[in-house]
Amino acid sequence: PPAPTRHARYDAVIVAAGDGRRAGLDVPKQFAPFRGKPLLFHSVRAFANHGASRIVVVLPSGQEPLAREMLSDFPSILYATGGETRQQSVRNGLARLNEQDDGGDGIVLI
After folding, report:
1. Would you say 58 and 80 are in contact if contact means Cβ atoms under 8 Å apart?
2. Is 48 exposed, middle or buried (0-12, 13-18, 19+ CB in 10 A)?
């Protein structure tokens, strides 16, 4: 029989720090409902259900309380505040992972 497959350890940074202007919605796109849940919920659930060790959600300043409420099914999520650009937001998300360094050299999906 074939040897069991070993999956690589990985972390995820979900950059949801935009204001959603291009989407033309009344709410930022990450909080827009899709199939009864905010879009952000679906992104987090996908990573959580597929083995992400740690998940960082990067949000606009002041939106963490709303996100915590919407993502209460995932209490171990880490949060970071977005920057002026996507690059800065990604940097902030990676820095948040680094603060919680567990000594691993895993993969980070962004």
Report:
1. yes
2. middle
d(CA 88, CA 90): 5
What count of other Cβ atoms lies within 10 Å of the Cβ of residue 13? 24
Phi, psi of 65 (to 5 degrees): -60, -40
Strands 37-38 and 33-34 come out as: antiparallel
- Local mean pLDDT, 10-residue blocks, the chain (110 residues): 65 87 73 87 95 94 93 95 95 92 77
Q: Give the contacts of 87 (CB within 8 A, at least 6 positions apart).
A: none
Tokens in use for 83?
């920057």
